[in-house]
Amino acid sequence: MDTRSRFALHYASAGLALVLAFAGLGAALPLFASGHAAPPAQSLRMTPAPTASVTANTTARQQRIFRKLWRTVNERYIYPDFNGFDWQAARAEIQRRINAGLTDEAFYEAMRDLIAGLNDDHSQFLSPDEAKDEDAEYEGTGTYTGIGIVSAVNAARGYIYVLTVMPDSPAERAGIRPHDHVLEIDGQPSVDASGESQSWLLRGDAGTTVTLRVRTPGQTPRLVAVQRDEVTSVEHIEHRLFTGDAGDLRIGYLKVPSLFEASVLPRSRAAIRDLMRDGALDGFILDLRTNGGGTYGNLRGLLAIFTSGDMGEFVARSGTTTPIRVRASAIGNSQQVPLVVLIGAATESFAEVLAGSLQAGGRATLIGQTTAGNVEILLSHDFEDGSRLWLAEETFRLPNGAMWEGEGLTPDILIPLGWDEYTAEDDPVLAAALKHFESR
Q1: Three-state secondary-structure class, residue 92
Q2: Distance between CA 222 and CA 215 in Å, rounded?
Q3: Architecture of 238-377+386-438 per CATH?
Q4: pTM assigned to the model
């Protein structure tokens, strides 16, 4: 099996819109899971066969890739009913179209549509170029041309809102901040009539200008002109030290916006060492409110800073389980320090596993909103042309048997306000965390 790494990660443009290195990716996945309802029979959109000539070698290669992809999904996909999708019928139709002649571009589009038909909110197919972009993002070397934000969609209110602003990006220079609402993009609504994000309108050539209608929560909308530029998509690991109202408490704060990049763990450890530089902390706040998941290595590494032991297990369709066992890797008093984890609707996948494991083990108090409830575990399969399948093959189960796929983690202290309802200056979730420590 061509498995590169174990992931639980949401990309997405319909929900968590990654307006960064993934901005050029094809199929998009929604942020908020709503179960696994079967898609309609016509959900597999068939791209018409092109008129351009296709060689026999091209067709043979496409058939090999498709056979391997189809077999992998058929044998390993976590839902044996394929979410109501007629997987057998899809096989015959795709093979017919490949034999009729497809360019590689049309073939990759057909594969995207095929995997999107599974409707599980995670699985997706990447073309060779998209897979290269993903690898660059993992290495922290990915660049793209745009404005440099990560956004989510509020379909009910008809706007996208900013989760993260990339450091030294056009958006940051233009004064756009996390929590801001993007109401319009060049005069067009940021969310279309069906509730889908139109964040793709933010992309464009370097040097061109996009005009946004932006509203900071509680303020009057304003027009902001942003000149697009090349953006490096390295996530910003934020850390701060709070001293409490009386100055007698030292509370460390670490915001980890993603578990995807290879450098997340070493940069997080460096930030915690800096917070511990003057001695032990009285409390620690781990902020995962905008974290959409990432790699298994980053999950285990962050868990090891704060705890150890049996964290739970991954469960495959066959019933086979893979335990998660963590060996402590303390920094200062990180294994003993009272811990709060901030969570929200954009906390997904391995970020949920991280928060849920710490809560279940009695190691952390969760404060914020219920999480997304998306903990399907993806495994990657690389094909001979460099294309890639990310397939939901497992889910996560706590040692006590609890699972929260489709439901989300429930915070110990609920703050009934979403990320787009406040600013960094009046953050009620962070305030509740500090109050929690001050009242101990």
Answers
A1: helix
A2: 6
A3: Alpha-Beta Complex (3.90)
A4: 0.83
